[in-house]
Design a protein that fits this description.
11 helices, single chain, 2 strands
């Protein structure tokens, strides 16, 4: 997403103010401004423990319900997996539909601009890329395409609207397959684009952005698992999440005490 024109117009003056602050610091004056990127770097570091706890909880719950509770035999698991596999085959074996990804990417930017009270002034999508010109931007708007699977959300929305008029229960398998394919599309393109130096990631700093993207994507996967598997409940997942957080805190405390001896 390209930043709005007023923000770009202010960039030079912002750099000059930042340079002045650095010069004051060099002469011994107390700095009055902490760069936002430094703050977000610290926030990204503090996101490491929650990311570890969520990862441990998700994969433990997934492995347990898949093997012990035979989740792998359910319709939800098979058709979701089928959709994901079909997409991955197409992604690695056929020409990648970049225009489809670009459209969803920029549409997600535009949706989040409007959700956060902004206005979209220009929306452009082409085979070589696209951009959205809006009157505001922030971390959520910049990173939305990397944690908000727009095509999966659209599929669920279409299914819900159709359910108001016809009986769609016999076609649940199709919804699972479409969600699997669109989620795999979201994940594969996200992993493919991040190493290419996306400008969106630079808005809040690359490390901070990657941590936010990882945690939110894993949280969405955990939600899908809870919804799809009857054996994994919200309360049970939350309880296990808290237990793992307590265990990690105790381990970190123990390591800190040993280092301070």
């Amino acid at each position: 997403m390209k930043g709005e024109t007023p923000r770009r117009a202010r960039s030079e003056s912002a750099r000059n103010r930042h340079r002045s602050r650095l010069e004051l610091s060099a002469t011994g004056a107390i700095p009055t401004h902490v760069p936002k990127r430094w703050v977000k770097l610290v926030v990204g570091i503090f996101l490491l423990p929650p990311a570890w706890v969520l990862t441990q909880t998700f994969f433990t719950a997934f492995a347990r319900t898949t093997v012990r509770d035979r989740f792998w035999t359910t319709e939800e698991f098979w058709f979701f997996s089928l959709g994901a596999v079909l997409w991955l085959v197409a992604f690695f074996g056929l020409p990648r539909p970049r225009w489809l990804y670009v459209f969803g990417h920029e549409l997600t930017h535009a949706i989040w601009v409007m959700l956060l009270g902004g206005r979209v002034h220009r929306f452009r999508v082409g085979s070589d890329g696209g951009h959205v010109l809006a009157d505001r931007t922030n971390t959520w708007i910049a990173l939305a395409p990397y944690f908000f699977p727009i095509y999966s959300v659209l599929a669920i929305g279409v299914y819900g609207i159709c359910a108001l008029f016809v009986d769609v229960a016999p076609y649940r398998w199709l919804l699972y397959a479409v969600i699997g394919a669109t989620w795999a599309m979201h994940l594969s393109f996200t992993c493919w684009m991040i190493p290419k130096g996306q400008p969106d990631l630079h808005y809040g700093g690359t490390f901070f952005s990657i941590m936010v993207i990882y945690v939110l994507n894993l949280a969405l996967l955990a939600m899908l698992l809870i919804i799809a598997s009857p054996q994994v409940t919200w309360m049970g997942f939350g309880r296990e999440l808290m237990e793992n957080a307590v265990n990690l805190t105790a381990w970190i405390t123990l390591q800190a005490r040993q280092l301070l001896r």
